[in-house]
Amino acid sequence: MARKQKRVLILGGGAALGAHHVGALKYLDEQGIKPDAIVGSSIGVINACCYASGGVPQLEQAWSEIRSIPLIFSPSFRHNPVFGRSLFSMDRLSGAIEEYIDFPKIFESRLELEFILLNLSRGRGEVYSKRDCADWRELRTIARAGYAIPGLFPPIQFRDDWFVDGGFAWNIPLEHALGLGATEIYLLAPIASQLPYKGRFSSFPDFLRRFVDVMWRTIGNMGYLYARMDAGRLNGVPVVVIEPGEQYSGFGPLHVFNAYPSKNRRLMEAGYRDAKRVFAARRRLEEHARARRLEAKAAGGRPADLRPGRASRPGHRRIETKDARPVIAVDGGAVIPATPGVAAPAPERAPGPAGKVVSLRANEPRGTS
């Protein structure tokens, strides 16, 4: 029996860089690629809810109007370091965001939504979905928890436990997408995985800035940087990655948290371009593989360039790989190509949780109301 097709979209966290999601989603939408399920982390939770409320047009409107700094820096007599558990209140930010989100509509829709949360009460990352909610109000609660940045905003209580932004636990939950039964995975990662080369450091602060940039890049993309990919597949499932180029790399408070219309438009345009380039690179790879198969069929054998460790003919070279994964880097964005005709070997066993934050196990309680 043929396996049911299921497209899973992963929207990784990255704060104000989440505008990059919008352009990439617009290009996917134009190509007829619509998700059956969305897994969101941090800003990905907000974008997932907005997309589920009104599609790409709703996202474009929200990011064309939003200004984050006045919404983040919201002093409060209740939510402050002296009397509360945060620097600011999240009420102003949530109120502005939820003008673009229709939670009753999302709750009734067929689109699956999964949110990555950090459960502070139990000390672990967990995944919650619409199925875990009794009504749309509970869905709204876990959505707010998904972008409650610890320190800036207070934790959110859901039933008996306290939750914050799950991006600190599992920003790119590739393995969870597999668990949803994905047959295609589209990963939109707003944190650039490539940093410009730096050969020297002029001072100690310069060194520290570079270290923070590297940690931001690594923690933000760990879910796929170290995934065991083979020919652009994870456990046989094709994965396409769309991310910004080096111009949007690195960490800086204003760079990461300051969203405003002109910057958001630039990021949305970059997301569209990056997605377009990724798919162009993917098509070139597929055409190359198709040509090699035709050559093999005409010659009555297997083409030389598809043999492990061989080049097709003099003058050709193998595609360079990084992190033991075949990644085609393009100018702003990257794609992990799924090469037709090159079958991924069956895994010896399902990957275990070693080294990764795992979602809530079925036999473990979440806390009851």
Explain this structure to me?
The chain is an alpha/beta fold. Helix content is 38%, strand content 13%. The protein is built from 11 helices and 11 strands. Strands 1, 2, 3, 4, 5, 6, 7, 8 and 9 form a 9-stranded mixed sheet that branches. A hairpin with a 2-residue loop joins strand 5 and strand 6. Helix 1 crosses helix 2, helix 1 packs across helix 11 and helix 2 packs across helix 11. The C terminus is likely disordered.
Summarize the structure.
Mean pLDDT is 83; it is low at 305-369. The chain is α/β, with parallel strands linked by helices and 369 residues long. Helix content is 38%, strand content 13%.
Key phrases:
single chain; 369 residues; alpha/beta; 9-stranded mixed beta sheet; two-stranded antiparallel ribbon; globular; disordered C terminus
